[in-house]
Amino acid sequence: MKSIICENYKIFIGENILRNVQLDSYKKICLLTDKNQKNNILDYFLKEIKSEFDIIEIESSEINKNISSALNIWNFLSQNNYNKNSLLINLGGGVICDVGGFCASTFKRGIDFLNIPTTLLSMVDASIGGKNGINFLGFKNQIGTFKNPISVYIDTNFLNTLETNQWLSGYVEIVKSALIYDSDFWTLLSSKFYKDHNINEIIFKSLNIKKEIVEKDPFDKGQRKILNFGHTIGHAIESFYLNKKKKITHGKAIAMGIIMELKYSRARKKNEIIKYIKSIYNEIEEVDINHLIKYLKHDKKNQDSLINFSILKEIGKCDFNNYINIYDL
Predict the structure, then answer these.
(1) Which of 1, 56, 156, 177 could tie 14 with a disulfide, CB 3.0–4.6 Å?
(2) 141-158 pLDDT, tens per residue?
(3) What residues have CB less than 8 Å from 170, skipping those under 6 apart?
């Protein structure tokens, strides 16, 4: 088992590590998980952790990452007498970690929560960094908090349950971390097909990159904004698809976002980047920017009609606070 020591919590990574979770100091523990979670995931968790839990199950799709889900969780915690000395465990993907962290950080002005991510996306992105939140009025991550979990347990056994589209949703975040911060890591990633990598190695590397960036700027005022590379347009694409019959995965939306945002970059190797991304995320079709204006206007980083982009300077280096008038996109 490997560990990464963050400023006020630890991340543990490895196989069969859930038996190391320490819960003895909590009298009441609630488990938040996905209603559609594969049974073997919950069975594995309950087998490894010998404690008593209440269990809340929610639909963990982006369309259900909303205030209604939060109200249901708060109601359950309140009706079952949870208090400041209780714990919420988030067992699931990115939506579970986002919603669970948001509910825990606001209930009773904040109770402890622990993240156990079960998808590659939640392992390398949603479960760490302290950002928690929900969508609102059809726009991504409009309401949220900053609060870190007490710890994160990344049991890579869960990766054996994933389908290809779930792998790709997480892998794009690993690619992004290399592009914005570590050219050597990009060289490693781009030298192989995504399935051919040592997954524990690249998860560990990607997490360390995010940890370094977040600790320099925990509240997203400066350098942490480089983590938004590909996400300004990518989140607009996700919002665009939220209420449509045709759905889009996070991975594909962010892959599109990276490609579209590279139009504003002068990076010498941007065509190499686009070629690699398109080789993995098949049949990428850019969304007409005019369809995205409505959603870009609600981006949290904006100043008036200026959209705030993080733009790749070169592989391994990214600039933040690049403002482009929405009418010039």
Answers:
(1) 1
(2) 999 999 999 999 999 999
(3) 119, 120, 121, 122, 123, 124, 125, 251
